[in-house]
Design brief:
Elements lengths: L21 E2 L1 H18 L5 E5 L5 E5 L1 E6 L2 E7 L13 E9 L4 E5 L2 E2 L1 E2 L15 H17 L5 E7 L3 H5 L4 H4 L1 E2 L1 E2 L7 E2 L4 H17 L4 E5 L2 H10 L8 E3 L4 H10 L4 E6 L1 H8 L14 H10 L4 H8 L4 H11 L3 H18 L4 E7 L5 E7 L6 E2 L2
Parallel strand pairs: 7-10, 8-12, 14-15, 14-16, 16-17
Antiparallel strand pairs: 1-13, 2-3, 4-5, 5-6, 6-10, 9-11, 17-18, 18-19
Length: about 375
């Protein structure tokens, strides 16, 4: 469960500027819960709350809107995600803490914190979408406050995010079965800008939800547009089967196999999938260049003349090559490209499943497709 928003082409950071880290919703929730617990127990308004982060250091969070009224202690803070493209950046995180007769800490989500409605996530169905590490952080911080003041009773902590339901519309939470708001997340307490580990974790969680929903066939796409086209192509599949893998082709395929998928379809555009066809399993623009010599050799395999092959070798982008081949009417080129991509994906996974690759244009028109189910054989749609 994570709150990554879809990146737009103009949002890349300035490579010459140092990237600023931020803090997770889990760390912020821990800070406000600790501050509100201190206010409830002492009546003294805290300006800050110091939290020990799993990343290995303490951080002092600034608190606001502190109030003790009719037995309810309230504290808030504003989440700072640093330079990460996080949908929850600048969200207000609030904790309300009240007494309860039983000892210990009861934790729940309020307004703007989602509820889990599908299996496959680290939080059971029906509970607030507060992930295990933030749950532990909040519980331990508040328990420490109770112990320091010798409290005989326990407390109830409710975490709220006033704009959480609106923020959640920018995330994939509804796809994962998290309804009514955002998730309270974080394993280290720190948001690393453009964190590949965070995105990878979201891919694994999405595949886990698909598995728990009974899917044995998943569809991997590089982004929202290709996913939209994939959904139109395969309307028989449930929503959980469609997973945006970003640039992590090899990673997603391996985890799909690990989680029991029998068939994996990849739907995407030539710019990314030309790299997969040449054996690149991480298709970020900086990961590896497009091999135009390889694309020219594929064109020759499918009957293109030498003049066209030479033009391909001198092209600037894989999309330009796709346009050239479409205009020239060499559609078998795309099927061959898909076949190469299938084979590399299956080899990367170590076999044991069927891989399908579908190439589409920017407008969603299908260019070609192929599938491979055996490591020693290539099966196109012939």
């Amino acid at each position: 469960m994570m709150e990554k928003k879809r990146m737009k082409s103009g949002e890349a950071p300035d490579p010459d500027k140092p990237m600023r880290s931020g803090f997770t919703t889990g760390a912020c929730a821990t800070a406000v819960a600790k501050g509100a617990a201190q206010l409830l127990l002492t009546g003294i308004v805290p300006d800050r709350a110091v939290v020990s982060l799993p990343a290995g250091f303490d951080h002092s969070f600034e608190l606001q809107e502190q109030e003790l009224k009719e037995g309810v202690a309230t504290c808030a803070t504003i989440k700072d995600a640093g330079d990460d493209p996080d949908a929850t950046h600048l969200a207000k995180i609030i904790a309300h803490v009240t007494w309860r007769d039983e000892p210990g800490v009861e934790l729940d989500g309020g307004i703007g914190v989602g509820r889990v409605t599908k299996p496959g996530l680290p939080v059971p169905v029906g509970e607030a979408a507060i992930n295990p590490v933030p749950r532990r952080m909040i519980t331990e911080a508040v328990t420490q406050v109770l112990a320091e003041h010798g409290a005989a009773r326990g407390v109830r902590v409710v975490i709220s995010v006033p704009d959480g339901e609106e923020i959640a519309k920018k995330t994939l939470n509804s796809r994962l079965g998290i309804i009514g708001g955002i998730s309270i997340l974080g394993t280290r307490g720190v948001v690393v800008p453009f964190s590949t580990s965070a995105y990878r974790a979201s891919v694994v969680q999405a595949i886990s939800v698909a598995q728990a929903s009974g899917c044995e066939h998943i569809v991997l796409t590089t982004g929202g547009s290709s996913e939209k086209y994939a959904m139109k192509m395969m309307p028989e599949l449930p929503e959980e089967a469609f997973i945006q893998m970003g640039d992590f082709v090899g990673f997603a395929i391996k985890h799909g196999k690990r989680l029991g998928m029998k068939r994996i379809s990849l739907v995407g555009m030539p710019g990314k999938f030309a790299k997969v066809a040449q054996g690149v399993m991480m298709v970020h623009s900086k990961s590896a260049p497009v091999d135009f010599g390889f694309l020219a050799s594929v064109a020759r395999e499918t009957g293109a003349g030498e003049e066209l092959a030479q033009a391909i070798e001198e092209a600037n982008t894989a999309t330009q090559v796709a346009d050239m081949m479409t205009e020239a009417g060499f559609l078998p080129y795309f099927e061959k490209l898909c076949t190469y991509a299938c084979r590399h994906c299956l080899e990367h996974a170590g076999g044991g499943l069927t891989v399908e690759v579908v190439l589409v244009t920017m407008k969603g028109m299908e260019l070609g497709r192929a599938e491979v189910s055996e490591l020693d054989g290539i099966n196109g749609n012939e």
